[in-house]
UniProtKB/TrEMBL annotation:
Pfam families: peroxidase. GO terms for biological process: cellular response to oxidative stress; hydrogen peroxide catabolic process; response to reactive oxygen species. Belongs to the peroxidase family. The keyword Oxidoreductase applies. Keywords: Heme, Iron, Metal-binding, Oxidoreductase, Peroxidase, Signal. This is Peroxidase. It is an enzyme of class 1 (oxidoreductase). Residues 102-307 form the Plant heme peroxidase family profile domain. Its EC number is 1.11.1.-. SUPFAM superfamilies: Heme-dependent peroxidases (SSF48113).
């Protein structure tokens, strides 16, 4: 069972929340399977899958090295990685990449999402990949290499001859060869020139047309029917077992099932030290806390929303038949009969959707708690109106935990940027309220700021934890003391980053974005 909060909650959001209320919009790069942002010859779904394959292509499964570890970020200048596909892919990731969502997990999601949009079978998303910090060995297969070389390379990646044929057919059902990258194959290097692996619209559908056209000896695939036979690597690979596998793959269900398997194995090829999670499934119930902070009246503002999965074949077929409320305990765990009611947002009808028709409905709450008693945890109650039945969710038994030892005073926090020549200097102010009983002198309150550190020739930055101590302001308010980081310098690169707050050695405020702080002035309190 899923217990909230979970270290992969953010990845689950990026995966599940594609449109509507609370959307993350990772899907925007692949709005249709053929979508390429109007750049001639570009098809993002194909670029994302090719990027993932080139990343794992240098894996050595026996040694447990390489795989989907994003080392490809450091390898884009190599002759074996021709074209802009790789850096285009990482460019799209920039709004999603964080200390909670590695480039390599996003690459896995890119493949899962592309399969969904293009019509492949569902493949599971496991997460927990760790990004390499430097280039890996060379060794991506290239068209001019012979069959024994390719067979040996796929064996090193963990795929036998049959699986090699399958994986190449599954990969080359989408996209094209670009004249700008391989003019020796397309015989045309004009801007935007492409030669699709499949005739017509089929290049934007995850189907087995590539197999049929190969078997019919009537194919647009220039790795099969190119004029220079040395470069016809798909021809050699597809025919490696005298077409036994290709004949089997001519059945579309068989093709889809085999692609489901080998594409899953492709993204789940990881270095031996990586432990992948179980497949991420859409959570039935998930809360989000927007604000838990002291207000000027001396009580605690508490707001957020609950996400409930609904739809065909789920517990809740009809979103309009639902309502929800919370009950909560005080900070000492005493049960309150007090109810926090919720309303369904009007924005986007309070619903959202993910890949493959996952749908969610939201219920918002916005209330005030007495600061003397605070909050320890809450339960979520979902009512089906037509049957007048209510299901109580207690997060696996212990309730949904909330800590009010340290409150993040979001309204009293802000970020501003001022031009300094070609760059922007940022200034970050964060206020936190610490319960007076938690302020013995030896417990340090620190900001852990996820600073971006740029890397030569690499699209996405590295993260470095910058630790800054909060200072006491001397102000107190209803049992809390106010602490502040005042005007900390931040580079423009870090303007969309995240932070945590740590009391002693316990993380009390976890993974907050500074994005929202850019829009506001620091309010006063106390
Ligand atoms: C011997 C193995 C392989 C060779 C020699 C090879 C070669 C190529 C070449 C030359 C291109 C054209 C790239 C361009 O012009 O931008 C290409 C494209 C592509 N490859 Fe492969 N490939 C191999 C295996 C795979 C595998 C296993 C996959 C994934 C499962 C894959 C996925 C793709 C995709 C999706 C494209 C289209 C990219 C786009 O349209 O931007 N390839 N491949």
């Amino acid at each position: 069972g899923y217990v909230w909060p979970d270290k992969y909650d953010y990845m689950e959001d990026i995966y599940m929340l594609q449109s509507g209320f609370n959307r993350m919009g990772f899907i925007d790069g692949i709005l249709s399977c053929g979508f390429g942002q109007r750049v001639p010859g570009r098809q993002n779904s194909a670029e994302w899958i090719r990027t993932a394959y080139h990343d794992i292509a240098t894996a050595d499964v026996e040694a447990g090295t390489g795989g989907l570890d994003a080392s490809i970020q450091f390898e884009t200048e190599r002759g074996e990685n021709k074209g802009s596909a790789f850096n285009n892919t990482f460019g799209h990731f920039s709004g999603y990449y964080s200390p909670r969502s590695s480039v390599s997990d996003l690459l896995a999601l890119a493949v899962v999402g592309s399969m969904a949009i293009c019509g492949g079978y569902e493949i599971p998303l496991r997460v927990g990949r760790i990004d390499a910090t430097e280039a890996g060995p060379m060794g991506v297969p290239e068209p001019q290499q012979d069959l024994p070389t390719h067979t040996a390379k796929f064996a090193k990646q963990g795929f036998n001859q049959t699986e090699m044929i399958e994986l190449v057919a599954c990969g080359h059902t989408l996209g094209s060869i670009h004249g700008a990258n391989f003019p020796e194959i397309t015989k045309d290097n004009s801007t935007g020139q492409v030669s699709h692996f499949e005739y017509g619209e089929s290049a934007t559908v995850f189907d087995n047309t590539v197999v049929h056209e190969y078997l019919a000896s009537n194919t647009s695939n220039l790795l099969v029917a190119g004029s220079n036979d040395t470069l016809n690597s798909d021809k050699r690979i597809f025919g490696a077992d005298k077409n036994v596998t290709m004949n089997l793959l001519s059945d579309n269900t068989y093709f889809q099932t085999r692609c489901q398997d080998v594409m899953t194995r492709m993204i789940d090829t990881v270095p031996k030290e990586v432990v992948l999670s179980d497949p991420i499934i859409a959570r039935d119930i998930k809360p989000y806390i927007n604000l838990l902070a002291l207000n000027s009246n001396g009580s605690i503002d508490f707001s957020g929303y609950i996400r409930v999965r609904y739809g065909t074949n789920t517990k809740y077929p009809n979103a309009d038949d639902l309502s929800a409320y919370l009950t909560y305990t005080d900070r000492n765990g005493n049960n309150f009969t007090k109810i926090i009611s919720t309303t369904r947002p009007t924005w986007q009808a309070g619903t959202g959707a993910g890949f493959r028709g996952y749908t969610f409905v939201y219920f918002e709450w916005d209330t005030q708690l007495a600061s003397e008693s605070g909050i320890g945890s809450f339960h979520i109650h979902v009512t089906t109106k037509s049957t007048n039945t209510t299901q109580e969710y207690n997060n696996g038994g212990n309730g949904y935990p909330v800590q009010d030892k340290v409150l993040y005073q979001m309204k009293q926090s802000c970020a501003s940027y001022t031009p300094n020549g070609a760059v922007y200097d940022g200034s970050l102010t964060i206020m936190a309220a610490v319960r007076s009983t938690e302020v013995p002198g030896h417990k340090q309150l620190n900001l852990h700021f996820d600073k971006h550190v740029s890397r030569q020739g690499v699209v996405l930055d590295a993260f470095e934890t910058q630790i800054e101590a909060f200072n006491a302001t001397g102000k107190t308010l209803t049992g809390y003391e106010l602490f502040k980081i005042d005007g900390m310098y931040i580079g423009a690169d870090s303007s969309g980053t995240t932070f945590s707050v740590v009391l002693g050695d316990t993380t009390v405020i976890d993974f907050k974005s500074i994005n929202a702080l850019t829009q506001q002035e620091c309010a006063t309190i106390g």
